[in-house]
Each structure stands twice: as C-alpha cells, then as structure tokens.
C-alpha cells in the first residue's frame, strides 16, 4: 500500500511540476508575441477560447459506509498547479485537456450516513445500514446474514427490538461498534 501511495504521489508531483512549467512557458511566450498558447490550440485543432474556460476538476470520493459522491470545481488554468497541491493526497484517475478526475477513499462515514444512518435487519435477515429507519427500506450498505435464532438466544428482548427498530450511528466509532457486536451472529455460508 505504501509503495502505491509513493507511486501516485510521485506522479502527482511530476504532473503538477510539468503543468506549472507548461503554464510558465506559455506565459513567457504570451509575453513575447502576445499569442500565448495559440500554437497548442492550433495543434489540438481548437481555439484559444478553450484556454479561457476554467479547467474542470472532479473530486470523486467513496466512504466506508458505501456512499460515493462527486464534487466539481472550476479552476482557472493558471491556478491548476496550486489546486493539485491542495489535493495532493488524491489519486489521479483520468484527465483530458479540459478535465481532471481525482479520487479519494475516505476513512470515515459520509456526512449523509452521520446525519441519518441506522443499522437494522433487512426482511431477509441481512445486517444493513439504512438511510433513515429500517422501516423506510432505504438501503445504503449491506453486510452479512444474521443467524437470528442464535441472536435470540444470546441477546435480551430490548437488544433484539433495538436492532429491529434501528440502531442510530453518528460516527465511525458507533458504526464499527455495531459491526463488531453483531459479527458474532453472522450466519455461516452453508446456512444461507
């Protein structure tokens, strides 16, 4: 994992330095003959208008609770290198002349999971994270089938009812605690 991190960080640095160097060279050319990146636009078959439009920076995230989100930022071309430094821990997954997509795995719950996440059982007995109460059936993430017979013999009625109604999770510690508590009741694959 560390080797992958170093690889991506070094390529991110190379990309940022190269981009900053290219921008600096373009500014020097623009200062000398006023045409700036016209040679690049001509090679690409485009126009200088493309360079006047902001660069699209797409920030894609995945969270431990299974939620994925995307944020799009418009960054002026001359500020792209600085933006890349800001997102240095992100992985570059795609790029083209108008857009760069960065990706990050967040080691936390998504804000929506913190705001409205409940653990409960699906109708078929699978431990599930819901957006809202389990009765609303808005599944966010599923985990494993629960051996309900085994659980009923070891837990009190209150604990069983709590899981059926929904157990609220507001942070990563509560999330991990519920997973840990109910992992002992995970049904064997042969039982499924």
TrEMBL record:
Which superkingdom? Bacteria
Q: Which residues form the Bypass of forespore C C-terminal domain?
A: 107-183
Pfam families cross-referenced by the UniProt entry = BofC_C
InterPro entries recorded for this chain? BofC_C (IPR015050), BofC_C_sf (IPR038117)
* Annotated protein name in UniProt: BofC C-terminal domain-containing protein
- Species, as recorded: Brevibacillus thermoruber
